[in-house]
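Late entry, iron/sulfur cluster complex.
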Amino acid sequence: MYPDADLSPALLGRELLVDLQSLGMRMEEGLTEAPSRRGGAGPSDHKAVLIDGIAAMIPIHTGSAERSPFMASRPNSSGLSILSRDGFQMGSLSFPKQPRFYGLQTLDGIPYSMIAVLHAADVLATTVIQTCIRYNNRATACQFCSIGQSLDAGRTIAHKTPEQLAEVARAAVLLDGVKHMVITTGTPNNKDRGAAVLCDSSFAIKAAVDLPIQAQCEPPDDDLWFQRMKSAGVDSLGMHIEAVTQSVRMRIMPGKANVPIDRYMRAFETASSIFGRGQVSTYILAGLGDSAENILQMCSDLIAIGVYPFVVPFVPISGTPLADHPAPSPAFMHEVLSSLGIMLKQNNLRSAEIKAGCGRCGACSSLSRFEV
Ligand code: SF4
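Prediction complete; structure with ligand written out below:
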């Protein structure tokens, strides 16, 4: 809770956000029909909200969100929704409007929203290949991932072509003012691990519109791919370790755990030398079993080689094997993020200086609020 009456509004907002992202939020009946993110690669089952004008992703479709003490009311005529905790009003929030590019479709009739979606308030995101070599086998699949759900539900297409991505990116910039783009992919093979399609996609998008791009993939077999991605227009790169200790990696992502952490560290170093300090990042899901100490040690090692460790609270996604796994407690997140914020500040590594991607967006975590 927020016991310290001396907390500034900014700090109060930070504590509130830590609680909201761990505990989730219930929505007054009918509100969950408003745009939210269900299924897809990586974190999901969120809804974007604006608190003090800053976008944050809050779990709303999860089991823990159903039991959350937080409740958002239906927005009033000004678009403001009252946020209450255990019936006590905490303040107000609003929801980003449905983007205008969602109303368009390609000449062959594919809605733009099936090619790329709006994340937070100003990020365009796509999963270029909506399948993964590991996903259909429980012995190899990452247990937190729902990459097949949105495909099965008909909300996306399996492979987005470079031309389709370029068309949608241009429209999203012109109609909705998106500021940067995330292009991620399921892992299509054990060689380039998606780097080739990310190059093709980035090249086409950059030819169509001036939009900073973050590409996300596993470390490819050949480090030459980093230079190729950079030459194709990728500004920032994400390679996501998700969990930091080998026992947790083996339990949560038995296939991906076969890529040793050492391989990630070598890939981070090479990629950093190409993309620049602070332009390579990784996603770490707190709450899967790694201790705060282990997460912080990994973050310290990453920061030492100029890699931004984007630590987010794990969100248990419906329909995945981890649907009933508890989300991390607010106290755990506070312990990790407060120490990490100090480390980032001491090493002059800041989310605001990342050109594109999750670290710059920051909406899935309250980390950036601990950097100040
Ligand atoms: S942090 Fe990444 S996954 Fe989360 S909303 Fe932003 S762009 Fe999307």
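The longest helix spans residues 330-346. Will revisit in the morning.
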